[in-house]
Amino acid sequence: MKFSVHRAAFLQYLNTAQTAISGKTTLEILTGVKLNLSADALTITGSNSDISIETILSIADEDAQLTIEEPGSVVLPARFFGEIVKRLPEDTFTLTVNDRFQTTIVSGSSEFTINGVESEAYPHLPEIDSKDQLKIPGDLLKQIIDQTVIATSKQENRPMLTGIHLTINESELTAVATDSHRLSQRKATLENNATGNYDILVPGDSLSKLSKMLGETQEDVELQISENQVLFILDHTSFYSRLLEGQYPNTTQLIPNSASTTVEIDAHSLLRSIERASLLSHEGHNNVVRLVVDPAANTATIFGNSPEIGNVEEVLDFNQIEGDELEISFNPDYMKDALHAFGQSEVKLNFTLPLRPFTIVPSEDDGSFIQLITPVRTA
């Protein structure tokens, strides 16, 4: 096996594949990256059993300057190989693998030799048998992931809650995540797709990695779904993820359909106020911020305190308040995550009772995005 390639272009593909590689694996070979060289392309694969990423560098890519002399394949230790390539002195390098899988990397006056292993032992990628072609713009998919993954659970004792529940009914996509303390739901219409119904649960960690790969691309991402795997295809890269098993909780009944108190406010402004209040709340035994809404006095005030340090009080600058007087306490970190997802938009906070979950939606609410937070009992 032997090829030469432009170092920076190769690194982009290598880093993409290495996104899937983890040091915590029971299979030693999965700490490595697989290189498979054919007559017209170099395929780079990384996997951690839960996700697998395959990316293809073609000789047609002029920026890559890929020159193929002898096809073959090898698995190289991912961490060392990546660090070596990053530090090579020239813009291009040549990689050669001998019959014993010893791999030589030459760039300018620098030469490295590392031990590779035969690729036959590397696990095969999952086979996805899907007839339907589902497509979604990359920037929309990234937005959906980023807005919902924040509510996934980090506790492995309830594995279903570590995932994002995706349902597709005809052309309507709904993504839901909850850790039982908060919930995020996003809906979107998929244009020009084959009709069909799907109900899958994708690990949040998988989708977080996919989101980072998507960047700001507006190109369509193709989805293929099988019984226990989902495949996302974007340009020259295939991203495989296992699916979680089990029945996801019915979350629709958790979302209130009415409100006794509402506050309309700029999301970024509220976020900054919550950040200031949480400076003190984080130092206390209970990480809690209190909100007092008084429509009669036309005021809304945030309170944070730490018995050891002091307290903070801030009157909010809002657009509109309606309804009943209310005092409610909540985890500021949940609120900050939720407000980050709205960016610079105006939002409406809908409250029912002090100990009932409240929702945050865009002021121009069309039902496409909703965040729900469960308050904290302080008495």
TrEMBL record:
Residues 253-376 form the DNA polymerase III beta sliding clamp C-terminal domain. GO terms for cellular component: cytoplasm; DNA polymerase III complex. GO terms for biological process: DNA strand elongation involved in DNA replication. The keyword Protein biosynthesis does not apply. GO terms for molecular function: 3'-5' exonuclease activity; DNA binding; DNA-directed DNA polymerase activity. The keyword Plastid does not apply. Residues 1-126 form the DNA polymerase III beta sliding clamp N-terminal domain. It is found in: Cytoplasm. Keywords: Cytoplasm, DNA replication, DNA-binding, DNA-directed DNA polymerase, Nucleotidyltransferase, Transferase. Residues 136-250 form the DNA polymerase III beta sliding clamp central domain. Belongs to the beta sliding clamp family. Forms a ring-shaped head-to-tail homodimer around DNA. Confers DNA tethering and processivity to DNA polymerases and other proteins. Acts as a clamp, forming a ring around DNA (a reaction catalyzed by the clamp-loading complex) which diffuses in an ATP-independent manner freely and bidirectionally along dsDNA. Initially characterized for its ability to contact the catalytic subunit of DNA polymerase III (Pol III), a complex, multichain enzyme responsible for most of the replicative synthesis in bacteria; Pol III exhibits 3'-5' exonuclease proofreading activity. This is Beta sliding clamp. It comes from Ligilactobacillus ruminis. The lineage of its organism: Bacteria, Bacillati, Bacillota, Bacilli, Lactobacillales.
